[in-house]
From TrEMBL:
It comes from the Eukaryota. This is 7346_t:CDS:1.
Length: 67
């Protein structure tokens, strides 16, 4: 077993929903991703869902320098 730590709940949540139910194989080792459990109660942690922006910011022509 291993543990992945994140600085924010948002980062952990995004990782969890991206990897939920997935697994990875690396050098004949299978890595399965699952939710964290609360330390004292052993209840599964419920991750909040966050909107993820996939848009790319567009620069206005005034900010673009020609060479």
């Amino acid at each position: 077993h291993g543990i992945v730590h994140f600085y924010t709940i948002k980062d952990a949540s995004i990782f969890y929903y991206d990897m939920q139910g997935n697994y990875a194989e690396l050098y004949n080792i299978m890595i399965k991703f699952s939710a964290a459990f609360k330390f004292e109660t052993k209840e599964e942690f419920l991750y909040p869902k966050f909107e993820i922006s996939t848009s790319i910011p567009v620069m206005s022509p005034a900010n673009v320098k020609s060479s």
